[in-house]
Amino acid sequence: MKIKVMKKILEHGEKTAEELRELLKSKGILYLNLMSSPGSGKTTIIERTVSSLPEFKFGVIEGDIQTTLDAERMATLGVKTYQINTGPFGGDCHLEAPWVATGIHEMNVDGLDILFVENIGNLVCPAEFDIGAHYNTVVLSVTEGEDKPLKYPLAFRVSQVVIVSKIDLLPHLDVSLNKIEENIKKVNPSIKIIPLSAKTGEGFDRWLDFLRKSRNFQ
Ligand SMILES: Nc1nc2c(ncn2[C@@H]2O[C@H](COP(=O)(O)OP(=O)(O)O)[C@@H](O)[C@H]2O)c(=O)[nH]1
Ligand SMILES: [Mg+2]
Q: Given 71, 131, 160, 178, which residue has the most CB atoms within 10 angstroms?
């Protein structure tokens, strides 16, 4: 009986994810799911992206267990923002498609060009749930070490893009960017790897080019 209920919930989530993927595509809105450990730079990347592409209208759904701190950072930039806090509902460490769907309907995404979901910060649970994004994007900062793609492979396996962030810090670390890329490729040979710094802007153009191209749904 219990198994039956679980299956129903999962099926509901998968169906909603498919519907969201189609709905946003039909509206011409590029929809990305950003997943990473806490502090790898997701919010900073979104901030720099928004400032770098003034020709696009952005929306952001912020997933956090507690607080609206990231949503406040987005609101400061004039970005349409919706907050999902899981704390009051048991503190889930991921977002699910039906919750994101509620956010998408309540915030009214019409007229947006790009919608980001900043998933709840951890490299494990968010990867287990399809929220219907056109691109799952995992952010791995160089400070996390070379071995993380091997230790937490699912996030890299279900993503189409990986941002290797904070490359401005490489001179201060005993970490090889080549080794990080090698380990990412071991887990997912076809993933697109974009090393960048949201602080200095190094490598950021490749990310912006990727967004511009993907926004055309070619
Ligand atoms: N040196 C450096 N620090 C960064 C970079 N991107 C973000 N940070 C810092 O890392 C911390 C966490 O960033 P944040 O965007 O809040 O990470 P999030 O938890 O993934 O959203 C903040 O103190 C940022 O200023 C970067 O490219 N280089
Ligand atoms: Mg954040």
A: 131
Q: Which residues line ligand 1 (CB under 6 A)?
A: 36, 38-44, 121, 165-166, 168-169, 197-199
Range of the domain at 133: 2-215
Residues forming beta bridges with residue 35, ordered by sequence position = 138
Give every strand in the sheet of 114-118, ordered side by side: 80-85, 58-64, 114-118, 30-36, 135-141, 161-165, 192-195
| CA 43 / ligand 2 centre spacing (Å) | 4
Q: What is the mean pLDDT of each run of 10 residues along the chain (218 residues)?
A: 61 91 97 98 98 97 95 94 92 95 95 98 96 98 98 98 98 98 98 98 98 90
Give the CATH number, domain containing residue 133. Answer: 3.40.50.300
137, β-bridge pairs = 34, 161
- Give the distance from CA 40 to its chain's centroid: 11
Return the structure tokens found at 158.
């279900």
Q: Which tokens belong to 130?
A: 């399809």
CA–centroid distance, 7 to ligand 1, in Å, is 38
b (16+ CB within 10 A) / e for 147-186: ebbeebbbbbebbbbbbbbbbbebeeeebeeeebbebbee
How far is the centre of ligand 2, averaged over its atoms, from the C-alpha of 76 (Å)? 14
